[in-house]
Write a structure and sequence with these properties.
Radius of gyration: 29 Å
Structural class: alpha/beta
Largest sheet: 8 strands, parallel
Number of strands: 13
Strand order of the largest sheet: 6-7-8-9-10-11-12-13
Strand content: 5-15%
Order of helices and strands: HHEHEHEHEHEHHHEHEHEHEHEHEHEHEH
Shape: elongated
Distance between the termini: 83 Å
Number of helices: 17
């Protein structure tokens, strides 16, 4: 019995077993070298340890034995010894996207690594000494999306020391989550056109230069630009050439007549739910779009604007309207396209307006109004 108890005690004091660690490795908040060894044996392809906020050199050395890529995005700082301990991580990817600062000693240790890709995209700035050290990195990719590629002194150092094509690489690199981008360059858009799959979300952009808009219009899938509160006329004209997918501009609070004319050339859905006013001239332009038109932010319509919008040949969404005049209702009652009015309130429409709307089977009306036609 004593022997059995002794064996059990020894086993309990040993390295953590795989079943004692969570399947979601991002949930691990602290890690010992023994536990790291267990994970290295258990996991495959990529080891995600984004829940760690600290990492000592001994544990880093064990993690570096992993035969795949390693994510440590929860680290905001990294000791030079811990960085050097990743020397065994050869030919793979190391993600340190949470680092907010990088001293010269840590930069030197990271530069010596033989990893394929080193992702430091969370760094907002890099002093000249650290840049000189990091410029010695010999891997395939050094990702520094957080740095300003044109103004940072460190970027100039990197361009000169890392290679003649570093400026192009730095300008083109973009984060996996494209919503994190606050600015966008033409080279970045060109990179996205070649590499990005699926809808393109750029909701972090607050400004869209004309040259970027022109390049962006070549993108072949839907584009989300919900962070734009304003859009210049030249940029709108450029975006109007985007086809044949959706263009989401929910953040726009106003739209000039010229910008509306530019967007009217768009082929595909156009979402402008942030607009709360629309001029008659802008309405004339927008009905020419070839695709669904979302204007759910409009709370009221003049008769002239309503009559114009009712000429749209595709689906138009006006869920923000709670009422319609008789003239507006009659215009939509004759519409050949589909119009959606889910915000209309009981008691807000005249009998004449109600009859005009329910007579058109192509209108998407609230339930209470549909019931009137039964």
């Amino acid at each position: 019995m004593r022997y059995a108890v002794l064996v059990a005690a020894v086993l309990c004091a040993g390295p953590a077993r795989a079943e004692e660690l969570p399947q979601n490795t991002n949930g691990i908040k602290a890690l010992t070298p023994e536990q790291a060894r267990t994970l290295v044996r258990r996991e495959s392809h990529i080891l995600k340890l984004n829940g760690l906020s600290t990492l000592d050199a001994d544990t880093a050395q064990r993690v570096a034995e992993f035969r795949g890529s390693v994510e440590l995005d929860g680290l905001t700082t990294l000791h030079p010894n811990a960085a050097k301990a990743f020397s065994a991580l050869k030919g793979r990817d190391l993600y340190l996207r949470g680092l907010s600062k990088l001293d010269v000693d840590t930069a030197e240790s990271l530069a010596e690594l033989q990893v394929r890709s080193l992702d430091l995209s969370g760094l907002p700035e890099l002093d000249k000494a650290a840049a000189n050290a990091l410029a010695k990195f010999k891997g395939d990719e050094l990702v520094l999306n957080g740095l300003n590629p044109t103004d940072a002194e460190s970027a100039v150092v990197l361009w000169g020391n890392y290679g003649s094509d570093f400026k192009t690489k730095l300008e083109r690199w973009v984060p996996n989550n494209t919503d994190l981008l606050k600015t966008l360059t033409v080279p970045q858009v060109e990179y996205l056109i070649k590499r990005h799959k699926g809808e393109l979300c750029l909701n972090g952009l607050k400004d869209l230069p004309e040259d970027v808009a022109k390049t962006l219009a070549r993108f072949s899938t839907a584009i989300h630009l919900k962070g734009l509160a304003t859009l210049s006329d030249p940029a709108a004209i450029a975006l109007g050439k985007h086809k044949p997918r959706a263009l989401y501009l929910h953040g726009l609070r106003s739209l000039s007549d010229e910008a509306a004319e530019g967007l009217s050339q768009h082929t595909g859905a156009l979402a402008l739910d942030g607009l709360n006013t629309l001029s008659d001239k802008a309405a004339v332009a927008l009905v020419k779009t070839k695709g669904q038109l979302d204007l759910n932010g409009l709370m009221s319509l003049s008769d002239a604007t309503a009559i114009t919008l009712a000429k749209h040949d595709y689906k138009i969404c006006l869920d923000g309207l709670t009422t319609l005049s008789d003239a507006a209702a009659e215009a939509f009652g004759r519409q050949k396209g589909i119009a959606r009015f889910r915000g209309l309130k009981p008691g807000e429409l005249s009998d004449k307006a109600e009859k005009a709307l329910v007579a058109n089977p192509r209108l998407d009306l609230p339930r209470w109004l549909q019931d009137l036609n039964r």
